[in-house]
Amino acid sequence: MGEGKVTVIGAGDMGHGIAELFAVNGFEVTLMDKFPGALEKARGRVAASLARMVERGKMTKEQADAALSRMKFSGDMASSAAGAMLVVEAVPESEELKKSVFRELDSVASPDAVLASNTSNIRITDLAGATSRPGRVVGMHFFNPPMVMKLVEVIPGEKTDPSAVQKTVEACGKVGRTAVQVLKDSPGFIVNRINAADTLFFCLLLDKGVATPAEVDTYARGQGLPMGPYELLDFVGIDIGADSLAYFAGALSPEYGKGVTFAKMAKAGQLGKKTGKGFYDWSSGRADIPKVEPTDKLSIMDIFALEINESVKLIEEGVATPEDIEKGVVLGMNRPFGPITVAKDLSNAEVKSKLEELATKFDCKIFAPSKSIAEGRMRDAVEGRLQPKSGTKVAAPPVQEEHTEGSGAVRLERLPGGVAKVIINRPKLNTINGQVLERLDAIVTELTADQSVRAVVFTGEGAVFCAGADLSQFFSSSVAFMDFAKKGARTLRRVSEMPKLTIAVLKGYALGGGLELALSCDVRVATEDVEIGFPELTRGLVPAWSGSQRLPKLLGISQASFLILTSERVKGRRAYEIGLVNRLVTTGDPDESAVKYATELASTQAPVAVMLAKTLLNKGSEVPMDDGLDMEAMAAGLLFATDDLREGISAFLGKRRPEFKGK
Ligand SMILES: NC(=O)c1ccc[n+]([C@@H]2O[C@H](COP(=O)([O-])OP(=O)(O)OC[C@H]3O[C@@H](n4cnc5c(N)ncnc54)[C@H](O)[C@@H]3O)[C@@H](O)[C@H]2O)c1
To answer: Is the C-beta atom of 9 inside 6 A of ligand 1?
Structure first.
């Protein structure tokens, strides 16, 4: 691919992952470390990670071999840095050590190279000061592990040239990472700063004996989180939490020093998983969490209020825009939505009173409402009307599709023969959240405009099509939930109106919103044992992405009432018998079978005729018969003038396959 050369200094936890990410995405990479043992270990870690990706079908063996062959491992700084357009420093978090690396880099790297630091905390201006070219020095803060986490915070020092920021942001896009721009060098940048307020809160909860870790974690899991905050802290190391509070106490406010439990535990060597004991016992390899009732002493609103507060402070201080804060939290903390989204659904008064309550209860000024919230201007802040005056953003190029693990909630693959494949790839059985809807919507727009695509296969990653809408998202009110319903219905309507043949592959589960997506396609192929159904009524809901309207049109009111009102699941074979499914796949891979079928249809069905037939079918049932017949006659008239009609007839008479041009 020849993307240019990147050098990574420091082959530890972060460095080896950053180097691998660049190599996988076509860059020539030199990974440099002072210690030969570190280089050997890094080579092994990269090779193992690539092998895992091959095993999981994320890349071919050839692609993995090519990525590894693009990597060099070296102990020499000068030859490593020579010719690199970007150098990323990832040595341990010591200001003196990093400065010495930057001093050396300054003397050996090419003059126009961007010199980036992966520091979590050290001021970029201070590192840049160690060089004779502060204009070329930036912060490039990857998240751990770099191969998985999508976020990079890009930070300028006081003298950094916008062109260096631009180059760094572009490099992020080329490796499939979303760059958020930190406009001002400030402790913790965006994500670690917001996280620090949470960390302090969870430390103070224990200090003050408000609830036990097990009670809090049981509550958090009940809210749909995969891990409670204390289990997570045990997992990453209580020392990391304690160090973070100590750092912020020095760099931002002594109030962060108020939390004591984490520091005490760290001092006692009770670090969590890595020492076998933290808040929980880990001797079995997993946290042994006692079975307790969830606490009622805190609510998810406490966390939302604290994160909104910290976000508003970042906006007031000119550190980042609301959009970048939202992106940062979603991608850096693995959340379905961030504090800006939540803030837009809450009133200033609600957030303010919650913060006042927390500040008093914990005697902590960090939790007190920020200036804008105290003045009733939260909305101005989160809706961008307090846009920071300091610093300007460079334009971010689009993030390239990447070929690494964790790639996007919905993937689009273009296959030969005019076929595209749309793959939902999400945790929890490919459930659909707001992000999936947005991506599906964008894909529909892209494919609609692409004349070369004639048939589209909708499927799910792995053995499951889609188990429905992801209801673990945050909805602050009925209006917010109604918006989500409308958004889904709109997107599925656009799928149904796409001027291409669409095929859904029903396998594993096709439930609720997933089934509604399938109903919006023209053809449904299914495995014999897929479970199909509408569980909505058992959860107190109704199908709200057009299922209650489409299903009776498709099957008649009797079958539709039965399926929706009883929530009874049917298997693929039964669905085929009642006409819900058009083809059964009895052997082999259902995706392969659907793609083969799509490829056949893409060559036999005239594209313009498909487009008009779909309009007739979609609109026909909504207009009086006479109007429908007029539409039909007009469509036939339009088709009469197409090259494809001539080609279709001539191929039929000549007993050959037609070659339609879509004209
Ligand atoms: N680990 C994380 O979760 C994480 C996340 C984001 C950012 N960071 C930041 O990334 C940086 C690296 O962290 P890490 O966890 O990868 O550390 P690490 O200790 O795992 O790796 C550091 C590597 O640097 C090498 N090294 C030390 N001195 C060197 C020198 N003079 N020249 C070349 N190599 C040298 C070491 O041999 C080691 O292999 C730190 O600034 C850290 O704050 C870490």
So the answer is: yes
Whole-number pLDDT of residue 505: 98
Q: Give dist(CA 28, CA 412) in Å, integer.
A: 27
Name the residue with the closest Cα to ligand 1, atom 2.
Answer: 144
Answer CATH for 607-653 from 1.10.12, 1.10.10, 3.30.2310, 1.10.287: 1.10.12
The closest residue, in CA terms, to atom 11 on ligand 1 is 90
| Ligand 1 pocket check for 26: Cβ under 6 Å | no
Probe target for ligand 1 pocket from 91, 122, 152, 236, with the most ligand atoms within 8 Å of CB: 91
What whole-number distance in Å separates Cα of residue 417 and Cα of residue 333? 40
CA–CA separation, 634 and 569 (whole Å): 42
Fold assignment, 410-601: 2-enoyl-CoA Hydratase; Chain A, domain 1 (3.90.226)
Q: Domain spanning 191-382 has what CATH number?
A: 1.10.1040.50
Structure confidence by residue, pLDDT tens digits, 119-148: 998 999 999 999 999 999 999 999 999 999
Give me the CATH topology for the region 5-181: Rossmann fold (3.40.50)
The two structure tokens encoding residue 234: 């045990």
Nearest to 374, CA basis, from 341, 349, 399, 344: 349
pLDDT at 567 over 70: yes
Residue nearest to atom 36 of ligand 1 (CA): 10
Give the tens place of pLDDT for each residue, 13-34: 999 999 999 999 999 999 999 9
Q: Which atom of ligand 1 is nearest the CA belonging to 11? A: 39
Within this chain, domains 5-181 and 607-653 share the same CATH topology:
no
Q: What average pLDDT score do residues 193-206 get? A: 97
